[in-house]
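Example S7 (structure tokens).
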């Protein structure tokens, strides 16, 4: 297993040696490497078994660093960066030639953000290069929100996991791109689109399909437990339809006692979508370890972070 450590210097040294390392962010744990090290970047794809057509997010420690990777910054992008960074918002910007094609999967845009985690901000400040970091999980599986989740996925593919505790937001960043008409939503995430639209006006919807996986977070099946999982708006009916099977429930706010159900995860007893988002992946990880026949996940209200949670649940439940 990689070593779980709190020692930022140790991890910085390792990254300087072209190794990859798992790092905490407020969204999910990332598997990080020097964006200018071909060895490190290739290793990220290899360790995750991530297809090379899936570009990586570049992590910087300050808004002012944006111009080191972007060749132009649309005024809307500048406004969003100033309002929401550090925070769970990724911006797609025209890339500088110096950003390797491996990072952007040959695209002419680079994805960039300032993560809101004190440990990783301090790491980024020490390093003379930005870090590319996709989520620290095998491609397609549930994203890790604790150092232990990361450790459970890997044997000794890289030396260190930098421990920053449980991720506060718990789902990936919201990804926004730009065109002549304004801003485009590429991926729903930890920053609710209503907050973004306060600045950008109505977002354009990105046209998504399997042949055009501009953002792999958009692949129809992603973020998925190994256990068969279904999404339900009527929990009682779904339970009845699965009589005789070993059932796990993942509910928004309710608890549920019923002889037919083996285990119940309630994401937020107080009904907070923020709390539910931060608990989502950890609950999926736990349910996945119960040898269930089926996980029945409750659909969320389709607003605010509920949209982002439903997006993840839809991908987790796609056959
Ligand atoms: P992950 O960090 O594992 O959530 O993966 C990074 C996400 O950023 C993926 O969904 C990528 O497709 C997306 N991404 C990174 N760079 C770009 C880009 N240039 N254009 C579109 N999406 C991108
Ligand atoms: Mg990922």
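Recovered sequence:
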């Amino acid at each position: 297993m990689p070593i779980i450590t709190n020692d930022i210097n140790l991890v910085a040294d390792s990254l300087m040696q072209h190794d990859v390392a798992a790092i905490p962010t407020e969204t999910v744990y990332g598997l990080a490497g020097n964006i200018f090290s071909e060895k490190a970047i290739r290793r990220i794809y290899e360790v995750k078994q991530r297809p090379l057509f899936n570009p990586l997010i570049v992590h910087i420690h300050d808004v002012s660093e944006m111009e080191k990777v972007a060749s132009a910054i649309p005024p809307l992008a500048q406004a969003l960066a100033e309002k929401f960074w550090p925070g769970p918002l990724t911006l797609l910007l025209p890339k500088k030639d110096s950003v390797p094609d491996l990072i952007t999967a040959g695209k002419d845009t680079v994805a960039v953000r300032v993560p809101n985690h004190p440990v990783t901000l301090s790491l980024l400040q020490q390093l003379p290069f930005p870090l590319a970091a996709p989520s620290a999980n095998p491609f397609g599986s549930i994203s890790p929100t604790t150092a232990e989740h990361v450790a459970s996925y890997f044997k000794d593919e890289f030396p260190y996991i930098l421990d920053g505790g449980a991720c506060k937001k718990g789902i990936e960043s919201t990804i926004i791109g730009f065109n002549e008409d304004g801003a485009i939503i590429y991926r729903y995430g930890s920053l609710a689109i209503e907050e973004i639209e306060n600045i950008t006006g109505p977002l354009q919807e990105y046209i998504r399909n399997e042949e055009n996986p501009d953002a792999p977070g958009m692949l129809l099946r992603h973020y998925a437990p190994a256990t068969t999982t279904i999404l339900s708006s009527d929990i009682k009916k779904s339970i009845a339809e699965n009589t005789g099977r070993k059932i796990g429930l993942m509910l928004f706010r309710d608890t549920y006692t019923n002889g037919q159900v083996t285990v119940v995860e309630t994401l937020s007893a107080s009904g907070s979508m923020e709390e539910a988002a931060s608990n989502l992946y950890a609950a999926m990880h736990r349910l996945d370890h119960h040898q269930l026949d089926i996980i029945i996940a409750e659909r969320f209200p389709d607003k605010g972070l509920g949209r982002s949670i439903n997006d993840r649940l839809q991908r987790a439940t796609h056959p």
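Notes on this example. Residues 229-316 form a domain with the Rossmann fold fold (CATH 3.40.50.11030).
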